Amino acid sequence: MKLPELKIGNLVSPLPIIQGGMGVGISMAGLASAVAEEGGVGVIAAAMAGITEKDVATNGIEANTRALRREIRKARAKTKGVLGVNIMVALTHFADLVKTAIDEKIDVIFSGAGLPLDLPAYLKEGVRTKLVPIISSARAAKLICRKWLSKYNYLPDAFVVEGPMAGGHLGFKSEEIDDPRFRLENLVKEVVETVTAITADQSKQIPIIAAGGVYTGDDIRRFLELGASGVQLGTRFVATHECDADPAFKQAFLEADEKDVTIIKSPVGLPGRAVQNKFLQDVAGGQKRPFNCPYHCIKSCDPQKSPYCIAMALAQARKGKLKYGFAFAGQNVYRVDKIVSVKELLTSLADEYHLATT
Q1: Beta strands across the sheet bearing 271-275
Q2: Do the bridges between strand 11-13 and strand 6-8 make them parallel or antiparallel, or are there none, so unpaired?
Q3: I want to staple 167 with a disulfide (CB 3.0 to 4.6 A). Which of 73, 106, 330, 356 is the partner?
Q4: 3-state secondary structure of 196
Q5: H runs (alpha helix) in the chain
Q6: Cα 99 versus chain centre, distance
Q7: For residue 1, is it within any domain?
Q8: Which residues of 279-311 are buried (b: 16+ CB within 10 A; e: fewer)?
Q9: pLDDT class for 301, splitting at 50, 70, 90?
Q10: String of DSSP letters for 112-165
């Protein structure tokens, strides 16, 4: 059986596969355009998009919006496929980044790390950009739908439901991460049921995208059978030639064992999943790396209490300097055993799906 299309309103992706947005330079125009060109939804991460801009520390808003605009245009020049931008609610320059993405006529805005309760306010008349919140519970889906309907007469164009096996910052308490009640399968079923009830008297359908721990074509089959319309993968797209990170960053994925996958307490106040290394071991051991906050990138980060600057650490890791930083990754990172092209990855997922459904 062939992988089905993913329809988000009048937007159609040939494959029901979204490449997760990975911030601080991991998923930029290079990766996003390659994914979109092969039929998936390619996503540029807005978080510290301007990390390599010379004025990012002194002129953060301009540097990051300038870089985001450039990356969207670079990606669009390479493909006519579906492109999205991931913009975290927690970003200090959230509003400026959303306006930039909409001005550039991006196809989709994905927004999590907080509830994007005012996201429809940025849409202009005639704009076709789709708005897709990233959530971790049916309760969040219900709240967003209620708020958007009452204030903007607008329903989300889709929801990404991200479970606790995802990489990076997680929308769960530490004690919930390994709790079976919060398995992605359960979350997807609950959100599908909730959204189906909400849209029963509405003309709009809201597709559900399963994210966090999706690794194989058989995983895609399982979540589609549970009522999802598509899936989102992040970790697997890092292990591609087109990923915008340094080869040494990708090598950390290849070398990771299951025991190396760890949960950290991020300076931004959330648990996060990463690949264990000496940098993180030193932090866990109480060592601090004093810094003056140059970026002010996350609203919830307190530089006075943070043992290190997470933007600096992730930026160093992106450049392959893992002595001074670390790599965020999903629970399945230890299963990565080679670097492939985006085309090879998507072809293998489609083949696995076919085998699982025949």
Answers
A1: 168-169, 271-275, 261-265
A2: antiparallel
A3: 330
A4: helix
A5: 29-37, 60-78, 94-103, 138-152, 184-198, 217-225, 235-238, 247-255, 278-284, 310-318, 342-356
A6: 19
A7: no
A8: bbeebeeeeeeeeebebebbbebeeeebbbbbb
A9: low
A10: -SS--TTGGGG--TT---EEEEEESSHHHHHHHHHHHHHHHS---S-EEEE-TT
How far apart are the C-alpha atoms of 183 and 75, rounded to whole Å?
34
Q: Taking a C-beta distance cutoff of 8 angstroms, is the pair 8, 128 a contact?
A: no
Per-residue pLDDT tens digits for 100-121: 999 999 999 999 989 999 999 9
Specify the pTM: 0.94
List the domain range (segments joined by +) for residue 324: 247-332
Residue 240 pLDDT: 98
Asked whether the beta carbons of 313 and 323 are under 8 A apart, the reply is: no
Beta bridge mates, 6: 13
H-state helical runs in 285-330: 310-318
286's tokens = 């109480």
131 and 23 share a domain? yes
Number of domains in the chain: 2
